[in-house]
Amino acid sequence: LLLQAVAKLLDNAIKVTPPGGEVRLSAAVVETADGGAGIEVAVEDDGPGMASADRERAGQRFFRADEARATPGSGLGLALVQAVAGLHRGELVLEDANPDGAPRGLRAVLRLPLS
What we know:
The chain has 3 helices and 4 strands. It is an alpha+beta fold. β1 (23-31) and β2 form a beta hairpin.
């Protein structure tokens, strides 16, 4: 299930990244809020990004942001990723790929506890 979740995040990023753009995959062991250890798997793209209101709804089944309506898909991908994260006591976080304020890109982070 984790492999499918990461594959779905990569598939989404590839679909929205323009020619010549980049999709980046990273994984790191991180400290969790409770002082434990966790892992973060992040997929970052150079696509159009996603409005914060859309990011809040992106985990709902069949939700498609206006910018994604012309892109193939059913609106189930991020809902599946979110469900897999929940099964593993983790979470899916969607954030701007460019925190410096540039209007492009999305960073999807799958956060999971190690124990």
